[in-house]
Amino acid sequence: MIIVMSDSHGESKVIQDIKATYQDEASAIIHCGDSELDATDPIWEGINVVRGNCDFDTLFPESLVISADQAQVFVTHGHLYGVNFGLSHLTDAAQKAGCKLALFGHLHTPIATVEHDILCLNPGSVAQPRGQYKTKMYAKIDITADAYVISYMDLAHQPIVNLQFRLARSSQ
Protein backbone atom coordinates (compact mmCIF):
# COMPACT_ATOMS: atom_id res chain seq x y z
CA MET A 1 0.00 0.00 0.00
CA ILE A 2 1.20 3.49 -0.92
CA ILE A 3 -0.11 6.53 0.95
CA VAL A 4 -0.08 9.85 -0.90
CA MET A 5 -0.83 13.29 0.51
CA SER A 6 -0.18 16.82 -0.69
CA ASP A 7 -0.70 20.50 -0.18
CA SER A 8 -0.77 20.57 3.61
CA HIS A 9 0.24 24.27 3.72
CA GLY A 10 1.61 24.35 7.25
CA GLU A 11 -0.77 21.79 8.75
CA SER A 12 1.86 19.55 10.34
CA LYS A 13 -0.59 17.77 12.65
CA VAL A 14 -2.41 16.16 9.72
CA ILE A 15 0.89 14.93 8.27
CA GLN A 16 1.82 13.44 11.63
CA ASP A 17 -1.59 11.77 11.99
CA ILE A 18 -1.46 10.17 8.53
CA LYS A 19 2.12 9.05 9.17
CA ALA A 20 1.20 7.53 12.55
CA THR A 21 -1.78 5.73 11.02
CA TYR A 22 0.15 4.05 8.20
CA GLN A 23 3.85 3.98 9.09
CA ASP A 24 3.77 0.32 10.10
CA GLU A 25 1.81 -0.97 7.10
CA ALA A 26 2.50 1.25 4.09
CA SER A 27 5.38 0.45 1.76
CA ALA A 28 5.73 4.20 1.18
CA ILE A 29 4.27 7.41 2.54
CA ILE A 30 4.56 10.28 0.07
CA HIS A 31 3.99 14.03 0.32
CA CYS A 32 3.73 15.76 -3.07
CA GLY A 33 4.79 19.21 -1.89
CA ASP A 34 3.52 22.50 -0.56
CA SER A 35 4.01 21.51 3.05
CA GLU A 36 5.50 24.93 3.88
CA LEU A 37 7.65 23.18 6.48
CA ASP A 38 11.45 22.95 6.65
CA ALA A 39 13.11 20.05 4.86
CA THR A 40 14.97 19.27 8.10
CA ASP A 41 11.76 18.94 10.16
CA PRO A 42 11.77 15.55 11.96
CA ILE A 43 8.23 14.94 10.65
CA TRP A 44 9.77 13.86 7.32
CA GLU A 45 11.46 10.79 8.80
CA GLY A 46 9.85 7.90 6.93
CA ILE A 47 8.09 10.18 4.40
CA ASN A 48 9.19 10.79 0.81
CA VAL A 49 8.64 14.50 0.15
CA VAL A 50 9.20 16.91 -2.75
CA ARG A 51 9.27 20.68 -3.10
CA GLY A 52 6.15 22.54 -4.13
CA ASN A 53 5.76 26.07 -5.45
CA CYS A 54 4.98 27.29 -1.90
CA ASP A 55 8.00 25.53 -0.36
CA PHE A 56 10.95 27.87 -0.07
CA ASP A 57 13.39 25.41 1.50
CA THR A 58 15.68 24.45 -1.38
CA LEU A 59 16.73 21.24 0.40
CA PHE A 60 13.54 19.56 -0.85
CA PRO A 61 14.06 17.78 -4.20
CA GLU A 62 11.92 18.92 -7.15
CA SER A 63 11.13 15.28 -7.93
CA LEU A 64 11.89 11.78 -6.71
CA VAL A 65 11.90 8.29 -8.13
CA ILE A 66 11.18 5.64 -5.52
CA SER A 67 10.37 1.96 -5.53
CA ALA A 68 7.21 0.90 -3.68
CA ASP A 69 5.05 -2.20 -3.96
CA GLN A 70 7.32 -3.50 -6.73
CA ALA A 71 6.67 -0.42 -8.87
CA GLN A 72 8.77 2.57 -9.85
CA VAL A 73 7.08 5.79 -8.73
CA PHE A 74 7.72 9.32 -10.01
CA VAL A 75 6.86 11.98 -7.40
CA THR A 76 6.68 15.71 -8.02
CA HIS A 77 4.52 18.67 -7.10
CA GLY A 78 3.31 19.20 -10.64
CA HIS A 79 3.75 22.93 -11.19
CA LEU A 80 6.97 22.37 -13.17
CA TYR A 81 5.14 19.93 -15.49
CA GLY A 82 2.19 22.15 -16.37
CA VAL A 83 -0.44 19.94 -14.74
CA ASN A 84 -2.89 22.85 -14.88
CA PHE A 85 -2.92 22.32 -18.67
CA GLY A 86 -2.83 18.51 -18.93
CA LEU A 87 -0.74 15.54 -17.92
CA SER A 88 1.42 14.97 -21.02
CA HIS A 89 4.60 16.58 -19.60
CA LEU A 90 4.12 14.63 -16.36
CA THR A 91 3.69 11.29 -18.16
CA ASP A 92 6.71 12.05 -20.37
CA ALA A 93 8.85 12.66 -17.28
CA ALA A 94 7.57 9.49 -15.60
CA GLN A 95 8.26 7.41 -18.73
CA LYS A 96 11.78 8.84 -19.06
CA ALA A 97 12.39 7.91 -15.41
CA GLY A 98 11.13 4.35 -16.03
CA CYS A 99 8.09 4.78 -13.80
CA LYS A 100 4.53 3.43 -14.08
CA LEU A 101 3.11 5.80 -11.45
CA ALA A 102 3.25 9.60 -11.49
CA LEU A 103 2.11 11.20 -8.24
CA PHE A 104 1.64 14.95 -8.04
CA GLY A 105 0.00 17.74 -6.07
CA HIS A 106 -0.56 21.41 -6.88
CA LEU A 107 -4.17 21.22 -8.09
CA HIS A 108 -5.73 20.45 -4.67
CA THR A 109 -8.28 18.17 -6.34
CA PRO A 110 -8.44 14.37 -6.70
CA ILE A 111 -7.32 12.98 -10.05
CA ALA A 112 -6.84 9.29 -10.82
CA THR A 113 -6.36 8.32 -14.44
CA VAL A 114 -4.16 6.08 -16.55
CA GLU A 115 -2.49 8.02 -19.38
CA HIS A 116 -0.02 6.31 -21.74
CA ASP A 117 0.17 3.32 -19.36
CA ILE A 118 1.11 5.63 -16.45
CA LEU A 119 -1.11 5.99 -13.39
CA CYS A 120 -1.39 9.75 -12.80
CA LEU A 121 -2.68 10.51 -9.33
CA ASN A 122 -3.30 13.71 -7.42
CA PRO A 123 -4.32 12.97 -3.81
CA GLY A 124 -6.26 16.19 -3.37
CA SER A 125 -5.28 18.41 -0.45
CA VAL A 126 -5.17 17.61 3.25
CA ALA A 127 -5.63 21.31 4.06
CA GLN A 128 -7.20 23.34 1.24
CA PRO A 129 -9.41 21.27 -1.09
CA ARG A 130 -10.56 22.81 -4.36
CA GLY A 131 -12.96 21.90 -7.11
CA GLN A 132 -15.95 19.58 -6.89
CA TYR A 133 -14.88 17.86 -3.66
CA LYS A 134 -14.54 20.15 -0.64
CA THR A 135 -13.30 17.36 1.66
CA LYS A 136 -9.75 17.43 3.00
CA MET A 137 -8.29 14.16 1.71
CA TYR A 138 -5.38 11.92 0.83
CA ALA A 139 -5.11 8.76 -1.28
CA LYS A 140 -4.30 5.11 -0.66
CA ILE A 141 -3.05 3.01 -3.60
CA ASP A 142 -3.01 -0.78 -3.64
CA ILE A 143 -1.38 -2.39 -6.65
CA THR A 144 -2.68 -5.78 -7.80
CA ALA A 145 -1.56 -7.89 -10.75
CA ASP A 146 -4.08 -6.24 -13.06
CA ALA A 147 -5.24 -3.01 -11.39
CA TYR A 148 -4.54 0.05 -9.31
CA VAL A 149 -7.05 0.12 -6.47
CA ILE A 150 -7.35 3.73 -5.33
CA SER A 151 -9.19 4.88 -2.27
CA TYR A 152 -9.47 8.54 -1.40
CA MET A 153 -9.69 8.94 2.36
CA ASP A 154 -10.92 11.76 4.58
CA LEU A 155 -8.92 12.95 7.59
CA ALA A 156 -10.82 10.51 9.82
CA HIS A 157 -9.25 7.79 7.63
CA GLN A 158 -12.60 6.79 6.15
CA PRO A 159 -13.17 6.14 2.43
CA ILE A 160 -14.86 9.00 0.57
CA VAL A 161 -17.99 7.89 -1.30
CA ASN A 162 -17.65 8.33 -5.08
CA LEU A 163 -13.85 8.49 -4.83
CA GLN A 164 -13.06 4.78 -4.95
CA PHE A 165 -11.47 3.50 -8.16
CA ARG A 166 -10.13 0.36 -9.77
CA LEU A 167 -8.06 1.26 -12.82
CA ALA A 168 -6.65 -1.38 -15.15
CA ARG A 169 -2.87 -1.78 -15.34
CA SER A 170 -1.14 -2.56 -18.59
CA SER A 171 0.11 -6.13 -18.86
CA GLN A 172 3.71 -4.99 -19.30
Automatic annotation (TrEMBL):
GO molecular function terms noted in the UniProt entry: hydrolase activity; metal ion binding
SUPFAM superfamilies: Metallo-dependent phosphatases
Enzyme Commission code(s) on record: 3.1.4.-
InterPro entries: Calcineurin-like_PHP_lpxH, Metallo-depent_PP-like, MPP_YfcE, Phosphodiesterase_MJ0936/Vps29
Pfam families from the UniProt entry: Metallophos_2
Keyword Zinc applies: no
Keywords from the UniProt entry: Metal-binding
Coiled-coil residue windows: none
Cofactor annotation: a divalent metal cation
Group of enzyme by EC: hydrolase
Record domain Calcineurin-like phosphoesterase: where: 2-143
Family membership noted in the UniProt record: Belongs to the metallophosphoesterase superfamily. YfcE family.
Entries under NCBIfam families matching the protein: yfcE
Protein name as catalogued: Phosphoesterase
Organism whose genome encodes this protein: Pseudolactococcus paracarnosus
